[in-house]
Amino acid sequence: MKLTQGDLEGIPLTDESFSFFGNIPFIYGSDSLELSQDLLRAYTKAASETEFPRNTCRGDATIKATVLQNEPNSAWNIGVLIPLWPILPVNESWTYELSARIFCNGALVRHVEFIEQQDINAILYGRLRTDLVNRASREMHRKLVQRLAFELNSNRLTDLNSVSDY
Questions:
Q1: What is d(CA 154, CA 51) in angstroms, rounded to the nearest whole number?
Q2: Residue of 93, 113, 145, 151 with fewest CB within 10 Å of its CB?
Q3: Cβ(117)–Cβ(74) under 8 Å?
Q4: In a 3-state reduction of DSSP, which class is residue 58?
Q5: Which of 25, 41, 23 lies closest to 33, judged by CA?
Q6: Count of alpha carbons within 13 Å of 99, Cβ hemisphere only?
Q7: Tens digit of each residue's pLDDT, the chain (166 residues)
């Protein structure tokens, strides 16, 4: 699985040589993985250089991934008993939690937390499940980058939730 990589189609990437958030740890279980350079560039672009000047501001971010099995294995699931059996239903929810803080002149000026979730439902285990998880991971990263960019843009004219009221 490629949880720390992403093809962020339509998401702008920065040309800066250093990540504003440094190395963003991607915590999955007991492992701490590093995001790909493209993902770091996308998260860096979300923090506007005009809003957060690089000479006085820095960011700190962490992404935590969790997996929840939605259904326990059933009695008909022969794939549990025979490891090479190709049918092993998968019904799980993947959740990414992004926590980001921005410090300017040593003071905390912004703290945001976002949660994105995708459900994975597959009958065949193996390549199909891996492709579904990779697609879900890319989509969650894309949404997190967009939400972070929106939240860090102080020039917006309306609150995101108030748009639905009209």
A1: 8
A2: 113
A3: no
A4: strand
A5: 25
A6: 6
A7: 677 776 666 677 777 778 899 899 999 988 999 888 888 888 998 998 888 999 999 999 999 999 887 766 554 555 555 555 556 667 889 999 999 999 999 999 999 999 999 998 876 666 677 888 888 898 999 999 999 998 988 665 555 555 554 4
